[in-house]
Protein: Class I SAM-dependent methyltransferase
Organism: Bifidobacterium pullorum subsp. saeculare
Amino acid sequence: MAAMTVGDMIALFLKDDAPIRIDAFDGSSFGREDAPLHLTVNNSRAVYYMVDHPGELGLARAYLQGDIGSPELVPGDPYEVFKKLTAIKGYTRKPNPAGLARALATVASHGIRHPEPPSIEGPGRLRRLTEGLVPHSKAGDAATVSYHYDQSNDFYRLFLGPSMTYTCAVFDSPDDTLEQAQQRKLDLVLDKLNLKPGDRLLDIGCGWGSMEIEAAKRGIHVLGVTLADEQVAWGQEWIEREGLQDLAEIRLMDYRDVPEGDFDGICSLGMMEHVGVKHYPAYFQEIYDKLKPEGMLLNHQITRTNSYVGKSAGPFIDRYIFPDGELASPGEIETKIQNTGFEVIHEENLRQHYALTLHHWNANLAAHWQEATDMVGEPKARLWGLYMAGSALNFELNTIQIHQYLCVKPPEGHGASYPLRPWWTTDRSAR
């Protein structure tokens, strides 16, 4: 049986007219030279990664290690390469069994190898379970949140910018700066919650404290909770620097352990991705119990576009970004909210806004690429570029969305009272 080149192996999976050129370390190639996208397979480890884990996990491992690449690739912002890759979907084919057998025999003839995954890869679901990290238990959530957020605060600042706000911004125009759009998002949340000076706000999954700063500047008493030590340190220092200690506080605490109640408002921005779909009823009940009658909830979360796809993240996201992360559809989430007893006043989809936000973050990372790689190493810097660019593309393709739900807790025995028409506006001069 004749050995196959890497180019031959690729031809098993792609049609001859696919709009891509791939050049491999063994001197072989696939595709025409004038193809709109060029990729390189730089060493044999890339092949072994793909044999071990065909699909997104094998590709991710090879990319993070620099085993596959492209002359067109900007590591901090690989969006354009990813966008061109979406055109390849229509040119894939199922490999014939004989060809697949030849390919595997060729790989085996060089020795059976299982290269180590990149050192930044987290454990899979089974290993987390054997370590006692039950998904969405308090211990499990603390470990997975820490895995994502307890990186270097300075690294996050490179791409988040001075607002240190790691959730979808709100744009009036694509020409808005990231800082303008993030300020508009904070204003929108607080305006929707209709809080006044002296009111009490709980911020679940508060991040680095941007909401605490903005709420306290309005005279609102705000408590933020997070499971990430690095965020607490940053946020508390920020609060003290602004002289807002009498109004704002950040605690290292699970939202389920907050002893206070009777809040006038609760917000949760980008935290629900960590909760787990089967835990949604308990999550919303916990919030419901912590609000006073006619208190409001602003829940802001990434969603699936529809309800008939799986809820769990794929292996790449699970091992590298959000372990145990799950997404549900907008309708499923709203049903859980209303079944808890909330009245949903308003809902909106900010899908396009998140794509714009991610493009800004990628541009910031690319602009600070050398500093980023010096700080955390190239594989981890590549990881965040990969994750953000891929997410931007998925928002644009409407594979995922992000929804805000504004809800009120009705007083016992009758409906809540609130203004007849929406009272919030993104026009600050009109407030």
About this structure: The chain has 17 helices and eleven strands. Residues 358 and 392 are 6 Å apart (CA to CA). Residues 6-109 form one domain.
